[in-house]
Each structure stands twice: as C-alpha cells, then as structure tokens.
Design goal:
The protein has 257 residues and is an all-alpha fold. It is built from 9 helices and no strands. Helix 2 packs antiparallel against helix 3, helix 4 runs antiparallel to helix 9 and helix 7 runs antiparallel to helix 9. The radius of gyration is 21 Å and the shape is globular.
C-alpha cells in the first residue's frame, strides 16, 4: 500500500464519520471529477476542440461537485445556474488575458525537467493555459455558490413570512462573510504554492523585476486573481438568481390562488 492509497482511505473514513452519507458522496464525486479531468486531458490531446471540451467538462465537474453536497433541489438549481454563469464570464475574461500576458507554456526554470522531452504537441500552449486557468477556478466557484445558496435557503426556511427585500438584505450580510472566507482560502492556497516559488527565485538570485516578469509567477498570480474574481462574482449573481426565483414562485402562487 502506497502513501496515496493510505491517505485516500484515511480521508474516506474521516469524511464518513464526520459527514455521513454526504461525506461518502463528496468522496465519490472527488474521484469521478478526477476521471472527468483525465477525459478532458485525453480529448484535448486527441485534437478535439479544446474550448468545447473545456465547457462540457467544466460543466460536468461543477454539476458533480454541487450535486454531491446533498443540498435541496432549489439550492442545487441556484448554485448550478450561478456557477455556469460565472464560469462563462471568467472564460470571456481569461481568453484575452492569457493572450496578453503570454504566460502560457514552460518557463526557463523548467528546462532541467523537460530535458530530453519533446514539446512538439498538437495543442497550442496558450490554449492549454486557458484550459488550466479556468479549471483552477471551478472548485472555488462551486464552493462559494453552494455556501451562499444554502444560506439564502436557510434564511427563507427560518423566516417564511419575511419580505423578499428583508431576505436579500440578510443574504447580503451572510454572503459578504462567506465571500471573505472563500477569498482567504484561495489566498492562503496561493501563498502555500508561492512558498516554493519564492525559495526558487531566492536561490536563483532573482530581482523583484525578474520575479514579476517570470512565467511561473505571472501564471500563478493570474490563477489567483481568476479564482478570487470568480468567488466575488458568485455573490451578486446568487442574489440575483434567488431574487428571480422567489419572484417567479410568488407569481405562480398568486396565479394559482
């Protein structure tokens, strides 16, 4: 038994003990997402249209991740709608930013790792950079969408007679706290990755100007900014979708009455 299998078993046991059936569902969805990611990589390597593969694969990953939380139907619908909207908006932003930054591909610091390997692949590195940048944001988007949608659903369940404006106001306060926590999670994850980069740059005696112009730093920083922007965009769109759904339910109830 290697370390990966041992850690996977420990993770499974802890998730089941703490979260029960939901923990088991989240564990299964994790491995399903790995399989989906492997399919995305395989299809792109076979010269399928990378953007269509990315959109379909990203949508599947978001769907699996959100459904595995075990939330109610309304919360799941809201989270999925918001996640798809934010994913498309980020893709519109990522495409030109990756073109302008020219941060895709391997940097000079990777020369030793690539020695003896061929870089003659059939997919442009900029396209791969776009795919990697968007895929890196999906987890943060799904997490924030489910958290805010669940909070709004709980507020509505606790205060069924509250006006829509009151629910939106309370949702704004809760949403700000969730967004702040999610942003901190993304930021600390980036700082952990940047620790190894900073050690590398220090050993290479890079100046500040050299660091901010390296592909490694630029790509990591852009990935951080995309994730933070995705989390921030989830907040207003969740409130908007919740508002529209609530208005639709109220209209249907009035017509049936």
């Amino acid at each position: 038994m290697n370390v990966t299998i041992a850690l996977a078993i420990i993770l499974l046991i802890l998730m089941v003990l703490i979260a029960g059936a939901k923990g088991l569902g989240a564990f299964v969805s994790l491995w399903i997402n790995f399989l989906v990611l492997a399919c995305i990589i395989t299809l792109i390597s076979f010269s399928f249209n990378p953007f269509w593969v990315l959109l379909i694969g990203g949508g599947i990953i978001l769907t699996i991740t959100i459904i595995s939380t075990g939330s109610d139907e309304d919360t799941t619908r809201t989270a999925l709608t918001v996640s798809f909207i934010v994913m498309l908006l980020l893709l519109v932003l990522i495409v030109p930013m990756e073109q302008i930054s020219s941060s895709a591909g391997f940097s000079v610091e990777n020369s030793e790792e690539l020695e003896g390997l061929s870089l003659g692949i059939n997919v442009p590195f900029k396209t791969l950079g776009i795919c990697a940048a968007l895929l890196a944001t999906l987890g943060a988007i799904a997490e924030a969408a489910v958290a805010i949608s669940s909070s709004l659903a709980e507020l509505q369940a606790d205060q069924p007679r509250a006006k829509l404006s009151q629910l939106i106001s309370a949702g704004q306060q809760v949403g700000r706290e969730i967004v702040g926590t999610a942003v901190n999670t993304v930021l600390f994850g980036y700082l952990a990755d940047f620790l190894s980069l900073s050690l590398l740059f220090t050993r290479l005696n890079y100046s500040f100007t050299d660091i901010i112009n390296t592909k490694l730093f630029t790509s990591a920083l852009l990935s951080l900014m995309y994730s933070i922007l995705g989390v921030v965009l989830v907040f207003p769109f969740t409130l908007l979708v919740f508002y529209l759904q609530h208005k639709k339910q109220t209209t249907n109830q009035d017509e049936n009455a």
